[in-house]
Design a protein that fits this description.
By secondary structure, the protein is α/β, with parallel strands linked by helices. Helix content is 54%, strand content 11%.
């Protein structure tokens, strides 16, 4: 992608300084932010660091006249909802910009509805408008497999795919495309669209979070909102996570955020119903066990255990 920064590798007595280039490029800041924002995901973070290392080395190679052509950077992120795919895409956009592989470093996140029209002649302008907005940065297409609906002869998703393929090949120096979605559905999508599969250089799989990781995520979320859990609420939340994780439609960190939002609602109701009793700062900050255990998740378990 086009050079946008005047980062010049410094040559020391023993050669070019790769670590100095790393520090000066702000890549370290993006990787540190990724560690702060996302619990776990060690394989994902390792792969992101590998890609960053490749780009650093390629930049250093070009500085001494070694040309291998621009690396292919289109990616596939697979995994269940709430596993951090969008957050990693944002940080990847920052890394690409920091190293001069993108002009703007922004992320444009879209779904099928943003690309595919409902009548003849509608899809091409929609898709091209999205691509225009994304140029110079990263285009993130969530649930990309919905672009391909072979069972519907009048579907216009294939037209969007063909436009994307052309741009991914001919303008890959000015746009990185990240396709995201469930692992099995993305596999079928690539099998049905070999042209798309051949343009994806990096496949990154996002694992589900463990119960301990989900609890750590909850604590980070609460700290960011200036809430805390009482001792009883800590035990209740750990129990909640184990129960909720086993239920259908669990969305990892997204489900945890929803649970915390509902606990805050119950806390607010509980405090309001105290009817004029003075409130301390500590009371305003504290989620109690009853705020967590009022969840229907616990009620469902009780019903299951009844004879």
């Amino acid at each position: 992608m086009g050079e946008t920064r005047a980062l010049q590798p410094q040559a020391g007595p023993e050669g070019l300084d790769l670590q100095a280039l790393y520090r000066d490029s702000n890549v370290a800041a993006a990787l540190e932010a990724l560690d702060r924002e996302l619990v776990g995901l060690a394989p994902v973070k390792t792969r992101v660091r590998e890609i960053a290392a490749l780009l650093l080395v390629e930049k250093l190679r070009r500085s001494v006249g070694l040309e291998a052509g621009p690396p292919s950077l289109h990616m596939s992120f697979t995994g269940n909802p709430g596993t951090g795919k969008t957050t990693v895409a944002l940080r990847m956009a920052e890394i690409l910009h920091a190293l001069g592989y993108s002009r703007k470093g922004h992320l444009v996140a879209v779904t099928r509805d943003d690309l595919v029209g409902q009548y003849i002649g509608h899809t091409a302008p929609k898709t091209k408008e999205v691509l225009k907005r994304a140029m110079g940065g990263v285009l993130f297409i969530d649930e990309a497999y919905y672009l391909y609906r072979p069972e519907n002869e009048r579907d216009y998703g294939q037209e969007a795919i063909e436009i994307l393929l052309q741009v991914m090949e001919n303008q890959r120096e000015d746009l990185v495309v990240i396709l995201a979605g469930y692992r099995d559905r993305m596999g079928r999508f690539f099998a049905s669209n070999p042209g798309m599969a051949s343009r994806i250089a990096h496949h990154i799989d996002f694992p589900d979070y463990s119960e301990s990781e989900l609890y750590a995520i909850a604590e980070l979320m609460l700290a960011g909102m200036q809430y805390r859990l009482s001792a009883g609420a800590q035990a209740a939340l750990r129990e909640y996570i184990g129960l909720r994780r086993a239920q259908p439609h669990f969305a990892n960190a997204r489900s945890i955020r929803n649970a915390l939002d509902r606990a805050r609602l119950r806390q607010a109701k509980r405090l309001f119903e105290r009817r004029g009793a003075p409130l301390t700062r500590e009371a305003l900050m504290t989620i109690e066990a009853e705020d967590v255990r009022a969840s229907r998740v616990f009620a469902a378990r009780t019903e299951e255990n009844q004879p």
